């Protein structure tokens, strides 16, 4: 299943950060507090999805919450950072080689355990060595 794609960015790091952030939001949507939300009758699936996305990213308007959510009455605190640390088993794939190890370092923050990318950079050894050091499987 593809969760996050960092396409169209000018920077390879931005691509990794964007895809990782999408994976993090996907994971936060499975937080027990989120799953326990009770929506009012008649709220559409799309409205629920949008509200949950806003909630897990920390941007939710109180009037929208009150209109759609039956319980709890106000958005409860969500331990986003602690829950996000549980994100694991993520695979990172690229259609181009990683010219520097910094993408691998960044990917680790999003629970990456496997990397698939072509090789061809003069830094391939450094990239693969860091992946190995961090316990990631690197597939060429």
Helical content band: 40-55%
Structural class: alpha/beta
* Largest sheet geometry: 3 strands, parallel
Give the number of DSSP strands. 5
**Approximately what portion of the residues adopt beta-strand conformation?**
5-15%
Order of helices and strands: HHEHHEHEHEHE
Radius of gyration: 18 Å
Question: Helix segment count?
Answer: 7
Strand order of the largest sheet: 3-4-5
Mean pLDDT: 91
Could you tell me how far the N terminus lies from the C terminus, measured between alpha carbons in angstroms? 20 Å
Low-confidence stretches: none
User: What is the 3D form?
Assistant: elongated
Task: Describe the overall structure.
By secondary structure, the protein is α/β, with parallel strands linked by helices. Helices cover 44% and strands 12% of the residues. It has seven helices and five strands, in the order ααβααβαβαβαβ. The chain has helices at 12-28, 32-35, 45-56, 62-68, 80-84, 102-108, 124-133; strands spanning 38-39, 69-71, 90-93, 112-116, 137-139. It has a three-stranded parallel β-sheet. The chain is elongated and about 55 Å long.
Layout: helices, strands, pairs:
Blueprint lengths: L11 H17 L3 H4 L2 E2 L5 H12 L5 H7 E3 L8 H5 L5 E4 L8 H7 L3 E5 L7 H10 L3 E3 L1
Parallel strand pairs: 3-4, 4-5
Antiparallel strand pairs: 1-2
């Amino acid at each position: 299943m593809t969760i996050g794609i960092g396409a169209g960015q000018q920077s390879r790091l931005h691509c990794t950060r964007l895809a990782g952030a999408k994976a993090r939001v996907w994971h936060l949507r499975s937080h027990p507090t989120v799953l326990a939300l009770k929506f009012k009758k008649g709220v559409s699936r799309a409205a629920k999805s949008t509200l949950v996305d806003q909630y897990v990213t920390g941007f939710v308007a109180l009037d929208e919450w009150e209109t759609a959510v039956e319980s709890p009455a106000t958005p409860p605190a969500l331990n986003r950072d602690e829950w996000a640390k549980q994100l694991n088993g993520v695979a990172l794939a690229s259609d181009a080689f990683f010219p520097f190890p910094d993408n691998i370092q960044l990917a680790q923050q999003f629970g990456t355990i496997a990397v698939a990318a072509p090789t061809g950079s003069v830094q391939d050894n450094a990239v693969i060595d860091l992946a190995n050091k961090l316990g990631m499987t690197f597939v060429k």
